[in-house]
Write a structure and sequence with these properties.
CATH class of the largest domain: Alpha Beta
Shape: elongated
Largest sheet: 4 strands, antiparallel
Helix content: 40-55%
Number of domains: 2
Order of helices and strands: EHHEEHHHEHHEEEHHH
CATH architecture of the largest domain: 2-Layer Sandwich
Radius of gyration: 24 Å
Oligomer: single chain
Length: about 250
Amino acid sequence: MTEFLTTRQLQEILHVDRTTIYRMADDGRIPAVKVGNQWRFPRRSIEGWLKSQSPVGATVSERTAPNSSDLRHLIPVECVQRIQDIFADLLGVMLVITDLQGEPVTAPSHVCPLFALAERSPAARHRCRQEWAALAQMPDLQPSFSHSHLGLLHARGLIRVGSELKAMLVVGGVAPPEWPPGATEIARLAEYLDASEADVQRAAAAAFVLSEPQKQQVLSYVQRIADVIAHIMNERNVLFSKLRTIAELTQI
């Protein structure tokens, strides 16, 4: 195994042109030494530099298994959770990232009290996941609100890695125009959620009431936020691809 990588080998790892590599070497942004008129790149230093580009807190298994179907290998959850929390607070809605089967990948942000009650009921919790999975099958590319089994509105933005659909950003907890529900519906929900009518009434009253312009604003942001998450996932995937390549080179 040679001690140095050539410019061509580094091009294949970084997927950039020769001029960019020379510029990075000149600027000291990448480990490099000049031998005569040619740049050479110390293999061990390059490997360490690539690893230093990994997301903060990434585990060894995350670094070495980027193609796993487990989304937690593709999403830097701690980083994405903070982004999700901020947008949920700014928009005044609940947000959560799920896989295509409706299973949450992040913890829900700005949790709706009625959803919190549903999470305590195994049947309602399962129904929520089923409804989220159904959102993934909707043919519309643009987010739109629909009613959940709790009577609230929810929508989704699609998250793609490359051309492949991988996850969704789900927005929920939004009160429909006919909210709050009447006594009969409160009683039905209380029985369904195995909760007291008083608790359900309080939770329903705390649903996120938005004006029509605010609802449209939320819908306009859902896909944009999903696209930000997709960009992070794609960048992470590219980085892992580079790490795999350098690991393969070290075996030569």
